[in-house]
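Take a minute with the sequence and C-alpha cells given here and flag any C-alpha cell that looks odd. Thanks in advance.
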Amino acid sequence: WSVRHATQAAQKLPTDWEDQCKRAHLRIAYSIKEHNIPSALYVNSDQTQVVYAQGASMTWAETGARQVSTVGEEEKRAFTCTVSVANDGTLLPFQAIYKGLTKVSQPAEKAPYREECISAGMLIEHSGTDTYWANQETMRHLVDQVIQPYFDRRIEELGLPATQKCIWQIDAWSVHRSEEFRTWMKKEHKNIILMFVPGGCT
C-alpha cells in the first residue's frame, strides 16, 4: 500500500447491504444443502479491466517544482479479463476480451506465451464491438468453453451423476441479469444454478 490521489469517489454500499448479503448467503446455503453440491462445484467468476500501462498521478519530483510530469496517466487502452475460481481453490482458465470486430484485435498468433495460454485452456477473443466489455456472445463462450467443461470434468472425477447441480456465482451486471442470458442458461445449461452477488456489494 502507498499514498495515492483519489480518482473517484468510492462505490457506496446499499443501505440494506447486510440484509441483501444475508439473503444471498441463505440462497446459496439452501442450494448447497438441497442439491448436495460439493465445494469443487461452486464457482465464482468476476470480470476486471486490465490496463496495458497503468499510470499514476503521483511521482517523485524536486521539492517546489511547478511542472511535474508522469508517464501513463492518460493511458486508456485495456482489455477485460474474466477470472473464475472454485470454492475448493481451483483456478479455472482465464477469458481475455479485446476491443475489436475481428481476430486482428487479439494478440498476434506468435505473441509471447499465447500458445501456452491456449494450451492451458485460456479463452482469448475479440468482443465484436467497439468496446472490450463482455457481452451476450462472450458470456456464452465463457460458459460453453470454460465453466461447463470444468463442471463436467469435476463431476466425472467425483463420481457424481451427469445431472449433478452446480453453482455459478457472478455479479449483478446488466448482461448477466438480462432475460436473454438467463433464458439461454436455463435452456442450454440446466444443471448450473445462477447466483448473483448483490448489486453494489462487490
